[in-house]
Design a protein that fits this description.
23% of the residues lie in helices and 40% in strands. It has 134 residues and is of the alpha+beta class. The protein has one domain (10-133): Hotdog Thioesterase (Thiol Ester Dehydrase, Chain A, Roll). A hairpin with a 2-residue loop joins strand 3 (76-87) and strand 4 (90-99). The radius of gyration is 16 Å and the shape is elongated.
């Protein structure tokens, strides 16, 4: 039996401002998608080797987002992400956004991303060394 590896969690702090709100005065759904992309990019940029950053880019294939609770101006949030699995050129990334004060889950998402070669703009298999890093 193979032991399941603990995921390497990356997190970033978020502060809800007026610009993040919709007409109902809570965080706009589109803002959550932006944060999902921001935390994914932050994770990639922190963990990737400089040559990977130069050679590869990621494009979104799909996002499934579940909205659990609302967030409001002044709320302090935490976005956490990890790569759940790699498959060929694709990665499956999970994101959770929680209220830092209450620990309430606000949003969770499951996204598929495809790695592309920057020169050819074509999908390229994720190297094993990279998969192990994440």
């Amino acid at each position: 039996m193979v032991a399941k590896k603990e995921p390497k969690i990356f997190q970033m702090s978020l502060s809800v401002t007026e610009d993040h709100l919709d007409e109902m005065n809570h965080v706009n759904n589109v803002q959550y998608l932006q944060w999902i992309q921001d935390v994914a990019k932050g994770h990639w940029e922190q963990e990737a080797k400089s040559e990977w950053l130069e050679q590869y880019a990621w494009v979104a294939l799909s996002h499934h987002i579940e909205y659990k609770k609302a967030a409001f101006r002044g709320d302090q949030l935490k976005a956490m992400t990890h790569v759940h699995e790699f498959s060929g050129p694709k990665s499956h990334r999970l994101v959770r956004i929680i209220n830092s004060d209450t620990n309430d889950l606000l949003v969770q998402s499951s996204s598929w991303w495809c790695m592309i070669d920057r020169k050819s703009n074509k999908p390229i298999r994720v190297p094993e060394e990279m998969a192990n890093k994440f």
